[in-house]
Amino acid sequence: MFKKLTENWSLKLLSLVFALILWFFVIGERQVEIGFTVPIEYINVPQGMMIANEVPNLVDIRLTGPRTLLVNLSSGDISFSVDLADLKPGLTSFKRLEERLDIPGGLKVTRISPSFVDVRLERVRSKTVPVQVVFSGELAEGYQLDGFRVSPERVEIEGAESEIRDVTEVSTQPVELGGARESFTLMVPLRYQGRYSRLKEEQTVELQVRILPPPPAEIEYMEKGENSQ
Protein backbone atom coordinates (compact mmCIF):
# COMPACT_ATOMS: atom_id res chain seq x y z
CA MET A 1 0.00 0.00 0.00
CA PHE A 2 2.82 2.32 0.94
CA LYS A 3 4.44 1.49 -2.37
CA LYS A 4 1.30 2.54 -4.24
CA LEU A 5 1.21 5.83 -2.34
CA THR A 6 4.80 6.60 -3.19
CA GLU A 7 4.53 5.66 -6.85
CA ASN A 8 4.78 8.71 -9.14
CA TRP A 9 5.08 10.93 -6.06
CA SER A 10 6.44 13.82 -8.09
CA LEU A 11 3.42 13.77 -10.39
CA LYS A 12 1.05 13.58 -7.43
CA LEU A 13 2.81 16.48 -5.72
CA LEU A 14 2.56 18.54 -8.89
CA SER A 15 -1.16 17.77 -9.10
CA LEU A 16 -1.63 18.85 -5.49
CA VAL A 17 0.19 22.13 -6.09
CA PHE A 18 -1.90 22.75 -9.20
CA ALA A 19 -5.10 22.03 -7.26
CA LEU A 20 -4.07 24.46 -4.53
CA ILE A 21 -3.29 27.17 -7.07
CA LEU A 22 -6.64 26.60 -8.75
CA TRP A 23 -8.42 26.73 -5.37
CA PHE A 24 -6.74 30.02 -4.43
CA PHE A 25 -7.57 31.42 -7.85
CA VAL A 26 -11.25 30.49 -7.53
CA ILE A 27 -11.46 31.92 -4.01
CA GLY A 28 -9.59 35.04 -5.07
CA GLU A 29 -11.90 35.70 -8.01
CA ARG A 30 -15.03 35.32 -5.93
CA GLN A 31 -17.37 38.28 -6.40
CA VAL A 32 -17.60 40.46 -3.28
CA GLU A 33 -19.20 43.79 -2.42
CA ILE A 34 -17.50 46.53 -0.38
CA GLY A 35 -18.59 50.03 0.63
CA PHE A 36 -16.53 53.23 0.48
CA THR A 37 -16.98 56.87 1.43
CA VAL A 38 -15.43 59.12 -1.20
CA PRO A 39 -14.95 62.93 -1.15
CA ILE A 40 -16.68 64.93 -3.88
CA GLU A 41 -14.58 67.50 -5.74
CA TYR A 42 -16.32 70.38 -7.52
CA ILE A 43 -14.04 71.49 -10.31
CA ASN A 44 -13.87 74.27 -12.90
CA VAL A 45 -16.16 76.77 -11.17
CA PRO A 46 -16.65 79.49 -13.82
CA GLN A 47 -14.72 82.68 -13.17
CA GLY A 48 -16.75 85.31 -11.34
CA MET A 49 -19.22 82.76 -9.97
CA MET A 50 -19.53 80.64 -6.84
CA ILE A 51 -21.54 77.75 -5.41
CA ALA A 52 -24.43 79.26 -3.44
CA ASN A 53 -26.22 76.29 -1.90
CA GLU A 54 -25.51 73.40 0.44
CA VAL A 55 -23.86 70.63 -1.55
CA PRO A 56 -22.68 67.23 -0.27
CA ASN A 57 -18.95 66.83 0.30
CA LEU A 58 -18.99 63.02 0.53
CA VAL A 59 -20.67 60.23 -1.39
CA ASP A 60 -21.25 56.67 -0.14
CA ILE A 61 -20.79 53.96 -2.74
CA ARG A 62 -20.83 50.18 -2.87
CA LEU A 63 -18.73 48.35 -5.40
CA THR A 64 -18.90 44.75 -6.52
CA GLY A 65 -16.21 42.83 -8.35
CA PRO A 66 -13.48 40.20 -8.03
CA ARG A 67 -12.06 39.90 -4.53
CA THR A 68 -8.54 40.29 -5.87
CA LEU A 69 -9.42 43.77 -7.16
CA LEU A 70 -11.28 44.94 -4.08
CA VAL A 71 -9.21 43.54 -1.24
CA ASN A 72 -6.51 46.23 -1.46
CA LEU A 73 -8.71 49.05 -2.78
CA SER A 74 -9.13 52.17 -0.60
CA SER A 75 -11.10 55.41 -0.85
CA GLY A 76 -7.93 57.13 -2.02
CA ASP A 77 -7.95 54.98 -5.15
CA ILE A 78 -11.39 56.29 -6.15
CA SER A 79 -12.00 59.83 -7.38
CA PHE A 80 -15.32 61.60 -7.81
CA SER A 81 -15.65 65.02 -9.40
CA VAL A 82 -18.47 67.27 -10.57
CA ASP A 83 -17.38 69.44 -13.48
CA LEU A 84 -18.99 72.90 -13.42
CA ALA A 85 -17.28 74.25 -16.53
CA ASP A 86 -19.41 76.40 -18.85
CA LEU A 87 -22.43 76.39 -16.53
CA LYS A 88 -24.68 79.45 -16.37
CA PRO A 89 -26.00 81.04 -13.16
CA GLY A 90 -28.87 79.06 -11.70
CA LEU A 91 -29.62 75.54 -10.46
CA THR A 92 -28.17 72.52 -12.24
CA SER A 93 -29.00 68.93 -11.27
CA PHE A 94 -26.33 66.27 -11.80
CA LYS A 95 -27.75 62.75 -12.06
CA ARG A 96 -26.30 59.31 -12.85
CA LEU A 97 -23.43 60.05 -10.50
CA GLU A 98 -21.99 56.56 -10.92
CA GLU A 99 -20.83 57.64 -14.38
CA ARG A 100 -18.69 60.33 -12.78
CA LEU A 101 -16.78 57.88 -10.60
CA ASP A 102 -13.25 57.00 -11.59
CA ILE A 103 -12.87 53.37 -10.48
CA PRO A 104 -10.60 50.51 -11.61
CA GLY A 105 -11.82 48.41 -14.50
CA GLY A 106 -13.69 45.23 -13.64
CA LEU A 107 -15.66 46.85 -10.82
CA LYS A 108 -19.32 47.81 -10.85
CA VAL A 109 -21.21 50.40 -8.80
CA THR A 110 -24.21 48.75 -7.11
CA ARG A 111 -25.31 51.67 -4.93
CA ILE A 112 -24.52 55.37 -4.58
CA SER A 113 -25.85 57.90 -2.09
CA PRO A 114 -26.78 60.63 -2.72
CA SER A 115 -27.96 59.61 -6.17
CA PHE A 116 -27.92 63.18 -7.50
CA VAL A 117 -26.39 66.57 -6.68
CA ASP A 118 -28.00 69.99 -7.15
CA VAL A 119 -25.58 72.89 -7.62
CA ARG A 120 -26.66 76.52 -7.66
CA LEU A 121 -24.22 78.95 -9.22
CA GLU A 122 -24.43 82.68 -8.60
CA ARG A 123 -22.38 85.64 -9.67
CA VAL A 124 -19.96 87.02 -7.11
CA ARG A 125 -20.72 90.62 -6.20
CA SER A 126 -19.33 93.12 -3.69
CA LYS A 127 -20.79 96.18 -2.01
CA THR A 128 -19.86 98.71 0.66
CA VAL A 129 -22.16 99.14 3.66
CA PRO A 130 -22.03 101.27 6.83
CA VAL A 131 -20.87 99.95 10.20
CA GLN A 132 -23.57 99.92 12.89
CA VAL A 133 -22.17 100.18 16.43
CA VAL A 134 -24.08 98.15 19.01
CA PHE A 135 -23.93 99.28 22.65
CA SER A 136 -25.05 97.40 25.75
CA GLY A 137 -25.33 98.42 29.38
CA GLU A 138 -25.61 101.89 30.92
CA LEU A 139 -23.07 104.55 31.81
CA ALA A 140 -22.43 105.40 35.44
CA GLU A 141 -25.24 107.44 36.96
CA GLY A 142 -25.23 111.03 35.78
CA TYR A 143 -22.75 110.44 32.93
CA GLN A 144 -23.81 111.05 29.35
CA LEU A 145 -22.78 109.66 25.97
CA ASP A 146 -21.53 112.67 24.04
CA GLY A 147 -21.00 110.74 20.81
CA PHE A 148 -18.76 108.20 19.14
CA ARG A 149 -16.70 107.71 16.02
CA VAL A 150 -15.95 104.47 14.19
CA SER A 151 -13.15 103.92 11.70
CA PRO A 152 -13.62 102.80 9.03
CA GLU A 153 -17.21 103.95 8.82
CA ARG A 154 -17.98 101.59 5.92
CA VAL A 155 -16.75 98.09 5.07
CA GLU A 156 -16.87 95.90 1.97
CA ILE A 157 -18.62 92.55 1.75
CA GLU A 158 -18.30 90.03 -1.05
CA GLY A 159 -20.28 86.95 -2.00
CA ALA A 160 -23.33 85.50 -3.70
CA GLU A 161 -25.37 88.14 -5.49
CA SER A 162 -28.70 87.13 -3.96
CA GLU A 163 -27.33 87.22 -0.41
CA ILE A 164 -25.55 90.55 -0.34
CA ARG A 165 -28.39 92.27 -2.19
CA ASP A 166 -30.36 92.66 1.04
CA VAL A 167 -27.45 93.51 3.34
CA THR A 168 -27.71 97.16 4.42
CA GLU A 169 -25.19 97.30 7.29
CA VAL A 170 -22.65 95.34 9.28
CA SER A 171 -22.92 95.40 13.07
CA THR A 172 -20.19 95.33 15.68
CA GLN A 173 -20.04 92.95 18.57
CA PRO A 174 -21.84 94.57 21.54
CA VAL A 175 -19.76 97.27 23.24
CA GLU A 176 -20.29 97.20 26.99
CA LEU A 177 -20.86 100.61 28.58
CA GLY A 178 -21.69 99.32 32.04
CA GLY A 179 -20.52 101.83 34.63
CA ALA A 180 -18.16 103.72 32.28
CA ARG A 181 -17.09 107.18 33.54
CA GLU A 182 -14.42 108.17 31.02
CA SER A 183 -14.07 108.40 27.26
CA PHE A 184 -12.33 105.39 25.71
CA THR A 185 -10.98 103.95 22.46
CA LEU A 186 -10.90 100.27 21.57
CA MET A 187 -10.85 97.83 18.66
CA VAL A 188 -14.20 96.12 18.17
CA PRO A 189 -14.77 92.92 16.16
CA LEU A 190 -17.38 93.07 13.43
CA ARG A 191 -20.25 90.60 13.49
CA TYR A 192 -21.13 89.22 10.07
CA GLN A 193 -22.46 85.73 9.51
CA GLY A 194 -23.21 85.39 5.83
CA ARG A 195 -23.72 81.86 4.52
CA TYR A 196 -22.38 82.60 1.05
CA SER A 197 -20.70 85.96 1.61
CA ARG A 198 -17.97 87.40 3.82
CA LEU A 199 -16.22 90.52 4.96
CA LYS A 200 -13.68 91.23 2.27
CA GLU A 201 -11.00 92.83 4.43
CA GLU A 202 -11.70 94.47 7.79
CA GLN A 203 -12.59 92.19 10.65
CA THR A 204 -12.37 94.87 13.34
CA VAL A 205 -12.98 98.62 13.56
CA GLU A 206 -11.63 101.33 15.85
CA LEU A 207 -14.26 102.89 18.10
CA GLN A 208 -13.82 106.18 19.96
CA VAL A 209 -16.48 106.92 22.58
CA ARG A 210 -16.87 110.33 24.24
CA ILE A 211 -18.42 110.45 27.70
CA LEU A 212 -19.42 113.61 29.57
CA PRO A 213 -19.30 113.80 33.37
CA PRO A 214 -22.37 114.88 35.33
CA PRO A 215 -23.01 118.64 35.30
CA PRO A 216 -21.88 120.46 38.46
CA ALA A 217 -24.49 120.67 41.18
CA GLU A 218 -26.35 123.98 41.38
CA ILE A 219 -25.73 125.99 44.58
CA GLU A 220 -28.38 128.39 45.75
CA TYR A 221 -27.16 131.55 47.50
CA MET A 222 -29.54 133.29 49.90
CA GLU A 223 -29.43 136.96 50.85
CA LYS A 224 -28.09 137.55 54.32
CA GLY A 225 -30.90 137.91 56.80
CA GLU A 226 -33.50 136.71 54.29
CA ASN A 227 -34.76 134.03 56.65
CA SER A 228 -34.26 135.92 59.91
CA GLN A 229 -37.55 137.10 61.30
UniProtKB/TrEMBL annotation:
**Pfam families in the record, alphabetically?**
YbbR
Q: Which CDD domains match?
A: YbbR
Which InterPro entries does its entry note?
c-di-AMP_regulator, YbbR
Q: Return the protein name.
A: YbbR domain pair protein
Q: Tell me which species this is from.
A: Geoalkalibacter ferrihydriticus DSM 17813
